[in-house]
Structures are given as structure tokens and as C-alpha cells.
């Protein structure tokens, strides 16, 4: 047992900690502008690897919008030793926040998954449910809402050509669900959009916008659809997604969506019925001005109101 623990620690040191330490030292020596991010990010061998598109958006925001080099807090020895300020933004990462964390736009994964320590500062959260939960625990949390992924239309406008009747965006845990693949095999005008297998940061946006309707068990499949005004339906293919739907309802609370429960998909007939729900879609309503103004880094946007 002791040997196993040693080998595991050695593996993580070789793959994550040592390369990350070398990379961070080089940043400091060359005076590169960096940001320490707390998120579900894959930084093996000191390099970022695509993992889950929604979480990976943090990399795009840091590199392209804030002009920052990224340090992954989860494997950053120097950040731990010197108590560097770290940031949590896109995703359900509030439970990982500590007393050195600045929160901008993230949310709780479940209603009882609170930060492990009181964050240094909370600038904005994903939705009203996260704020309500934090307030009950005595946290100082402003009334500033919005998932930063909603800002994508202000930086990228894809082609609006429709290629598919329905796009299915499963949570990464649902991608192998046999019902999805059987249904797609019988519906040639429908398309699977993977959040873990993509080539560039805007590929997912392009694919979502190319569909007339999105059926999604992935939260960011819903958020991107809303941001680009693509009709969408929240579904559950399994019970593998943690949080009992809290993060979805939290997001919906910020954009005036009344949806409280997902459509449960147990067989092909359920997908057939769900694929006909396009007419029940209503555009979201959220003023993103406060989210933009609260950002800890400068974003060049003059106006950002989604109606």
C-alpha cells in the first residue's frame, strides 16, 4: 500500500507538478504576465490539453481576452507556497475556492457544495441560487450574475447557415449512451456535438449554431445555445451528472428561464418527443453590463445586453 501511494505521488510529480513548476519559474524569469486559474483544466507536462470545452473556455478567456499566460492552481507548487491569488471563472468550481480566490462568474456544483474557505473576493456568480446559498452561509456576494460564456457573441459571430434539424450535446459522461447513437442512426438530419472531442475553441459554437434545435445534458451546450438564440431543451440521459440539476437551475435563474426540471430520456420515443419542442423555446433575458464591469481584467466591450 505504501509503495502504491509512493508510485502515484511520483507519477503526479512527473506528469503535473515538476513540469508546472519549471513553467512557472520561466514565467517569472521572463516577466510574462500570468494568471493562476482554478478549474477543471488538464495541464499535463506543463501544457494545456483539451478536456471539456465548457471548462476549457477559461483558457480562451485568459489567453485571448485578458492576454494572460495560464498557471493551473491545482498543480502549482509556487502558488501554494506563496499564497498567490487565484481566479475561478467559467464552470461549477466554487467548491474549490479558498481564501486566496477571486470569483467571477462561477457557480456551485450542488446546493450544499460550498467553498472550502471564504474567498478573497466574490465579484459575480453564475446565478441567483448560488448567491442565495452563499448569503445564507454569511458570505458577502453582490447581485451580479452571468456565466461568462454568454459573452461569446461579442467576440465571435459564426455563420448562421442551418445544416441540421437537431443537435445533441451530451454531457461528457453521457456521450456513450446507446440511446443517443441509436437515435442518430435513424435520423440523418440530426448531429452529435461532443464537448470533449473538438479541434478549436469556436468549433462547438459553429456546430451549435448550425442546428435548428439543441438537445443538451451539458450546461454549456444550453448556455451557448441561449447566447446565440438557438432553441434548446435541457435533458437528462442518466444520473451521472453531479448536483441533481442545481447548476442548470442556477443558470436559468440568471436569464429568466422558468425551467425547473429536465426532460428525462429513457428511450427513442422520448428523444422523438423532445425533438419536436422547438416552438416552446423563449429567448433569455439578461443584462451583462454588471458582469463585464465586475471583471477583474479589462474586456473591450462597449455594450452587452441580451434580450
Describe this structure in words.
With 307 residues, the chain is of the alpha/beta class. It folds into two domains: 146 residues, no CATH class; 135 residues, Rossmann fold (3-Layer(aba) Sandwich). It is 33% helix and 16% strand. The chain has ten helices and twelve strands. The strands form four sheets. Strands 7-6-8-9-10 form a five-stranded parallel beta sheet, with helices on both faces. The protein is globular, with a radius of gyration of 20 Å. The relative contact order is 0.12.
Brief summary:
The chain is α/β, with parallel strands linked by helices and 307 residues long. It is 33% helix and 16% strand.
Distance between the termini: 58 Å
Query: What's the number of domains?
Result: 2
Radius of gyration: 20 Å
Assign the structural class, choosing from mainly alpha, mainly beta, alpha/beta, alpha+beta, or little secondary structure: alpha/beta
The portion of residues forming beta strands comes to 15-25%
Provide the helix percentage: 25-40%
- Sheet with most strands: 5 strands, parallel
> Which blocks of ≥5 consecutive residues have pLDDT under 50?
none
State the shape. globular
Mean pLDDT: 91
> So how many helices?
10
Amino acid at each position: 500500500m505504501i509503495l502504491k501511494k509512493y508510485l502515484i505521488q511520483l507519477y503526479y510529480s512527473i506528469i503535473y507538478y515538476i513540469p508546472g513548476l519549471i513553467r512557472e519559474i520561466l514565467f517569472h524569469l521572463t516577466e510574462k504576465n500570468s494568471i493562476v486559474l482554478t478549474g477543471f483544466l488538464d495541464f499535463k507536462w506543463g501544457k494545456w490539453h483539451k478536456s471539456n470545452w465548457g471548462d476549457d473556455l477559461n483558457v480562451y478567456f485568459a489567453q485571448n481576452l485578458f492576454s494572460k499566460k495560464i498557471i493551473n492552481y491545482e498543480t502549482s507548487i509556487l502558488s501554494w507556497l506563496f499564497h498567490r491569488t487565484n481566479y475561478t471563472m467559467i464552470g461549477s468550481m466554487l467548491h474549490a475556492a479558498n481564501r486566496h480566490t477571486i470569483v467571477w462568474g462561477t457557480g456551485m456544483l450542488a446546493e450544499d457544495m460550498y467553498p472550502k474557505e471564504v474567498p478573497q473576493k466574490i465579484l459575480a456568480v453564475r446565478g441567483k441560487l448560488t448567491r442565495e446559498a452563499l448569503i445564507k452561509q454569511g458570505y458577502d456576494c453582490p447581485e451580479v450574475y452571468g456565466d461568462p460564456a454568454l459573452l461569446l457573441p461579442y467576440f465571435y459571430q459564426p455563420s448562421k447557415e442551418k445544416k441540421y434539424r437537431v443537435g445533441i450535446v451530451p454531457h461528457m459522461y453521457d456521450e456513450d449512451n446507446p440511446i443517443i447513437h441509436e437515435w442518430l442512426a435513424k435520423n440523418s438530419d440530426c448531429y452529435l456535438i461532443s464537448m470533449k472531442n473538438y479541434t478549436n475553441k469556436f468549433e462547438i459554437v459553429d456546430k451549435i449554431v448550425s442546428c435548428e434545435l439543441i438537445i443538451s445534458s451539458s450546461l454549456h451546450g444550453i448556455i451557448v445555445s441561449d447566447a446565440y438564440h438557438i432553441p434548446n431543451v435541457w435533458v437528462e440521459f442518466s444520473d451521472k451528472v453531479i448536483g441533481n440539476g442545481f447548476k442548470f437551475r442556477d443558470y436559468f435563474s440568471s436569464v429568466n428561464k422558468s425551467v425547473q426540471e429536465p426532460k428525462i430520456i429513457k428511450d427513442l420515443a422520448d428523444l422523438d418527443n423532445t425533438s419536436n419542442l422547438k416552438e416552446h423555446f423563449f429567448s433569455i433575458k439578461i443584462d451583462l453590463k454588471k458582469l463585464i464591469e465586475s471583471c477583474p481584467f479589462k474586456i473591450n466591450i462597449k455594450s452587452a445586453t441580451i434580450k
